[in-house]
Each structure stands twice: as structure tokens, then as C-alpha cells.
Here is the input.
Amino acid sequence: ILDSLRIPDLFIRHVDVMHKDSLDMTVEDRKTIARAVRDAATTSEAVVILHGTDTLEETGELLCEAGGPFEVPVILTGAMRPYEFRDTDAVQNVTEALLAARLLERGVYVAMHNRVLQFPGVTKDRRALTFVRKN
Here is the structure.
């Protein structure tokens, strides 16, 4: 995805934390993500996390509770349709997350589908296939 974008002044340090279906993630996995974010946030202007959408809200909530407050914006994003699919939303969502990383104040957010929502209080709307504020 990054190779397909034109962002000449963007420096990305990639940290590979885990490759796991988000439905299989445990609380310990989320704590591992929180530690990785805490480590990255000390030397970064922002942190973008690529995450499966099924349990993204759980990780966002844990980052607010156990991991934060971070001194930089932390943005979670993913895709409702995988990158390999022709009708994927992955490129759009990664692009939006990268832009959000430059514009937002510190906090934990999800960036997807032309919106940015701040945690806590975000949930996946499985019918609309996007994220919304909890009622």
C-alpha cells in the first residue's frame, strides 16, 4: 500500500508486532500492542496501527485504559474488505490514517471511511461496515 502512495516527505519506521486474526487476539496480545505503541511513541510524531476490524474497538479501548495517555496521536485502521480484494477499502483507510496522524492532537483514534473517531466510545457497525460512536 505504501509503495502505491505519493507521500515524498513521509518517513515510516515499520515495527512488526504480530500477525494474528483479530478474532484470535487475547488481552495479552492487546497489552503487547500497547507496549509497542508506548515504545514507538517516544521517538515518533504519531503511531498508525493496522488492525483487523472485528476487534479493533477492543484494542482502542485498551489503549485508552492501559496504554495511554500517549504524547502523540495513535490511529488504528484496517479494512472491511481485505487488500487482496478488488473492492478493498484498505488503501483509502491507510491513506486517511496517515493524514490523520499529521493533523490530530494526542489521543487514540480510528480512521476509516472518511471519518476519524476518538476512543473511548467507538464501536463497529456491522450492518453499515464502518465504525461509529456508541450511543
The radius of gyration is 14 Å. The chain is about 30% helix and 20% strand. Residues 14 and 99 are 17 Å apart (CA to CA). The longest strand covers residues 107-112.
